[in-house]
Amino acid sequence: MSQIEVPHALQDRVAAKLRTGRDILNNHFSVNYPTPRVEYNIDSMAAGYATESGWLIEFNGRLLIENADLFIDEIPYHELAHLYADRVLIAAQPAQL
Protein backbone atom coordinates (compact mmCIF):
# COMPACT_ATOMS: atom_id res chain seq x y z
CA MET A 1 0.00 0.00 0.00
CA SER A 2 1.20 3.45 -0.78
CA GLN A 3 0.60 6.45 1.43
CA ILE A 4 -0.70 9.52 -0.38
CA GLU A 5 -0.03 13.02 0.92
CA VAL A 6 -3.46 14.40 1.84
CA PRO A 7 -3.54 18.16 2.50
CA HIS A 8 -3.92 19.04 6.18
CA ALA A 9 -7.07 21.05 5.48
CA LEU A 10 -8.79 17.93 4.14
CA GLN A 11 -7.49 15.81 7.02
CA ASP A 12 -8.91 18.38 9.44
CA ARG A 13 -12.32 18.24 7.74
CA VAL A 14 -12.37 14.43 7.89
CA ALA A 15 -11.31 14.52 11.56
CA ALA A 16 -14.08 17.01 12.39
CA LYS A 17 -16.66 14.80 10.65
CA LEU A 18 -15.43 11.76 12.58
CA ARG A 19 -15.58 13.63 15.91
CA THR A 20 -19.14 14.74 15.20
CA GLY A 21 -20.18 11.22 14.24
CA ARG A 22 -18.41 9.76 17.27
CA ASP A 23 -20.26 12.14 19.58
CA ILE A 24 -23.62 11.27 18.02
CA LEU A 25 -22.99 7.53 18.22
CA ASN A 26 -21.51 7.61 21.72
CA ASN A 27 -24.56 9.50 22.94
CA HIS A 28 -26.99 7.20 21.14
CA PHE A 29 -25.41 3.98 22.44
CA SER A 30 -24.40 5.36 25.87
CA VAL A 31 -20.75 4.48 25.31
CA ASN A 32 -17.53 6.50 25.33
CA TYR A 33 -15.38 5.30 22.43
CA PRO A 34 -12.52 7.48 21.19
CA THR A 35 -12.19 8.89 17.71
CA PRO A 36 -10.63 6.16 15.57
CA ARG A 37 -7.11 6.40 14.21
CA VAL A 38 -7.04 7.47 10.57
CA GLU A 39 -4.68 6.56 7.76
CA TYR A 40 -4.81 7.39 4.07
CA ASN A 41 -3.41 4.15 2.66
CA ILE A 42 -5.98 2.58 0.40
CA ASP A 43 -4.80 2.40 -3.20
CA SER A 44 -7.84 0.81 -4.82
CA MET A 45 -11.40 1.69 -5.76
CA ALA A 46 -12.58 1.38 -2.15
CA ALA A 47 -13.23 4.73 -0.50
CA GLY A 48 -12.60 3.48 3.01
CA TYR A 49 -12.09 0.48 5.24
CA ALA A 50 -12.80 0.18 8.96
CA THR A 51 -10.93 -2.22 11.27
CA GLU A 52 -12.59 -2.59 14.66
CA SER A 53 -9.73 -4.54 16.23
CA GLY A 54 -7.36 -1.60 15.81
CA TRP A 55 -10.07 1.08 15.99
CA LEU A 56 -8.72 2.28 12.66
CA ILE A 57 -10.26 3.77 9.54
CA GLU A 58 -8.24 3.77 6.35
CA PHE A 59 -9.31 6.16 3.61
CA ASN A 60 -8.45 6.36 -0.06
CA GLY A 61 -6.59 9.67 -0.10
CA ARG A 62 -6.71 9.94 -3.87
CA LEU A 63 -10.52 9.70 -3.90
CA LEU A 64 -10.68 12.18 -1.03
CA ILE A 65 -8.58 14.72 -2.91
CA GLU A 66 -10.47 14.23 -6.18
CA ASN A 67 -13.98 14.38 -4.62
CA ALA A 68 -13.47 16.19 -1.34
CA ASP A 69 -16.95 17.53 -0.58
CA LEU A 70 -18.88 14.40 -1.53
CA PHE A 71 -16.28 12.16 0.14
CA ILE A 72 -16.37 14.09 3.43
CA ASP A 73 -20.18 14.23 3.43
CA GLU A 74 -20.57 10.46 3.13
CA ILE A 75 -17.53 8.26 3.72
CA PRO A 76 -16.38 9.12 7.29
CA TYR A 77 -19.86 8.46 8.74
CA HIS A 78 -20.18 5.27 6.70
CA GLU A 79 -16.88 3.84 7.96
CA LEU A 80 -17.57 4.99 11.52
CA ALA A 81 -20.88 3.10 11.37
CA HIS A 82 -18.95 -0.09 10.55
CA LEU A 83 -16.80 0.34 13.65
CA TYR A 84 -19.76 0.92 15.94
CA ALA A 85 -21.74 -1.92 14.38
CA ASP A 86 -18.86 -4.29 15.06
CA ARG A 87 -18.14 -3.09 18.58
CA VAL A 88 -21.57 -2.16 19.93
CA LEU A 89 -24.19 -4.14 18.07
CA ILE A 90 -22.39 -7.42 17.47
CA ALA A 91 -20.96 -7.46 21.00
CA ALA A 92 -24.46 -6.96 22.41
CA GLN A 93 -25.92 -10.03 20.69
CA PRO A 94 -26.61 -13.00 22.94
CA ALA A 95 -24.17 -15.88 22.73
CA GLN A 96 -25.11 -18.68 20.37
CA LEU A 97 -25.63 -22.10 21.97
Q: What is the number of E strands? A: 3
Helical percent range? Answer: 40-55%
The portion of residues forming beta strands comes to 5-15%
Distance between the termini: 40 Å
- Which residues form runs of ≥5 with pLDDT under 50? none
Class by alpha and beta content: mainly alpha
Overall shape: globular
Main beta-sheet strand count, sense and barrel state: 3 strands, mixed
Taking all Cα atoms into account, the compactness measure Rg is 14 Å
Instruction: Note the total helix count.
Output: 3
Helix and strand succession?
A: HEEEHH
Arithmetic mean of pLDDT: 90
Biggest β-sheet: strands ordered side by side in the sheet: 1-3-2
Keywords:
97 residues; mainly alpha; 3 helices; 3 strands; 52% helix; 11% strand
Plain-language structure description:
The protein has 97 residues and is mainly alpha-helical. Helix content is 52%, strand content 11%. The chain contains three helices and three strands, in the order αβββαα. A three-stranded mixed β-sheet has the order 1-3-2. α1 packs parallel to α3. The longest helix is centred in the first third of the chain and has 22 residues. The protein is globular. The mean pLDDT is 90.
